[in-house]
Write a structure and sequence with these properties.
alpha+beta, 4 helices, 4 strands, disordered C terminus
């Protein structure tokens, strides 16, 4: 990420999605805001993505979704959420692929209406 940012891709995806504990979040945002990294990286924090559903969101319920949104909005000038899945607190994982990373069932939209769940 640092190398890409130095090459001009300064607004890149971050590892916020995988940072869940207070220690992890503190370490990560300290590095991003209080070291030389702040000169070339512009954080884009996303509590979720189309293909990543952290264990925290999977088991934390609505309060976890709310907490992640507040953290994203207050810790970075640029944040986003992955649409209906986040707004509806979608927390069903399709399968586990690695520690703290889950592939989630996504909803395909055809002509503005939800289609069958796909992988």
């Amino acid at each position: 990420m640092h190398r890409l940012a130095k090459l001009g891709f300064a607004q890149s995806y971050t590892y916020f999605t995988w940072k869940n504990t207070k220690w992890e979040l503190t370490q990560y945002f300290t590095e991003m805001t209080q070291t030389s990294v702040r000169e070339f990286v512009r954080l884009n924090v996303w509590p979720n993505t189309p293909d990543i559903l952290s264990e925290y969101l999977q088991y934390g319920g609505r309060p976890a979704f709310m907490a992640r949104l507040v953290l994203a909005a207050t810790l970075s000038a640029n944040y986003g959420i992955y649409g209906p899945a986040f707004e509806l607190c979608e927390n069903r994982a399709l399968r586990k692929v690695a520690r703290s990373t889950w592939i989630r069932k996504s909803i395909r939209f055809e002509r503005g209406t939800p289609a069958a769940l796909t992988v």
